[in-house]
Amino acid sequence: MSALRLLGLSYLAVVSVFGFAIATADQAQLRQVMDAVTEAVSDTIGQSIVQPLLAFVRAEDETFFDPPPGSKTIALVPPEWDEELAFVAVKPMRQTRLVDMPRSMLAPELTIAPDLSEIEAPNVQEIIASPTAASSAQALVQVRLEQSLTPDLRRNFDLFLFVSTAARGPAAQRLYVFKKSPGGRLLLIHDWAASTGREKYETSPLGQQAFTETPAGFYQFDPNRMYRQYRSRAWDGAMPYAMFLNWERGGVPTGIAVHATTRSTVGRLGRRASAGCIHISAQNAALLYKMIRAEYRGQVPRFAYDEGNDAMSNRGELMRDTSGKLEMAEGFRVLIDIEKFSGRDVMAALD
């Protein structure tokens, strides 16, 4: 007999015995047993299947009808003012490669005046005696600077930068560097081509109207805003070796700085080409930046402040205490004199 048949006969025998037991058993007792079994099976199904299923459905229902927020808003502490932090970042502008530009648009080559050795500028009489184009302009600039300095300004600064914002003339669009000798005389040590503000109303990449001017006046450098690498967010441009002027207007520091031009704009030196900053070549900017930071730290007088206009003086007026003593602060002993001085009228008068 096969195993399958033997298993079948065994199943029939068990069923028969179970049926006979049911038929002969006490029906009331049997009903109690069956109810207990049914209740146990129901509890088991409810705990292991029904309740987990209901919990899953409830969670899905909450997720669908009341989804969690996709993002959160975090309150940030506003940063302290720094030239460009008042502006938001803008999308990068599409750059035009130099090789794609027609030749008529390329800036002409410009020869930048080399660094000069330390010399003493001649006086006006020497200019009249033997003037040359370069020496005459340098001497005229020194005479102009000497006449502009008050005794306090001359005494409390050791390096003087004279920047001409004139459009044309022998001294126009140049930055002259004068060093005070131990005897107090001003010695011209550098004469560099520069670019100052275009002096016209323009719209920045952020869509803001601005007059691109380099304002005339006396200024110091801000010791807290000097950067080897900096980028203007307002005008979307690189500003290597940036040294910002320590000047407040309207209660906030302005964004005017002396800094290096870039490789693509170096050909514009010698004419108005900036949004207000003073541009010089990368080599000269690096030299000036390192020299000032290494050699000219010290106590300097603070410029007077007009509380009514929330503006710092740029006319050479200094802050004093109640006894008349100058108010001093840590900084750089460097004075910047910005003037629209071409030297052309003086040269014409000497002819």
Fill in the keyword field for this structure.
single chain, 351 residues, alpha+beta, L,D-transpeptidase catalytic domain-like, 2 domains, 6-stranded mixed beta sheet, 4-stranded mixed beta sheet, 7 helices, 20 strands, 31% helix, 22% strand, elongated
Commentary on this structure:
It is a single chain. The protein is α+β, with helices and mostly antiparallel strands. The chain folds into 2 domains: 28-67; 98-350, Beta Barrel (L,D-transpeptidase catalytic domain-like). Helices cover 31% and strands 22% of the residues. It contains 7 helices and 20 strands. Strands 1-4-3-2-20-7 form a 6-stranded mixed sheet, covered by helices on one side. A 4-stranded mixed sheet has the order 8-11-14-15, with helices on one face. β17 (305-306) and β18 form a beta hairpin. The protein is elongated. The model is unreliable at 71-122 (pLDDT under 50).
List low-pLDDT spans.
71-122
Query: What letter string, H or E per element, gives the SSE order?
Result: HHEHHHEEEEEEEEEEEEEEHEEEEEH
* Physical arrangement of strands within the biggest beta sheet: 1-4-3-2-20-7
| Rg, nearest Å | 42 Å
What count of helical segments does DSSP give? Answer: 7
**How many domains is the backbone divided into?**
2
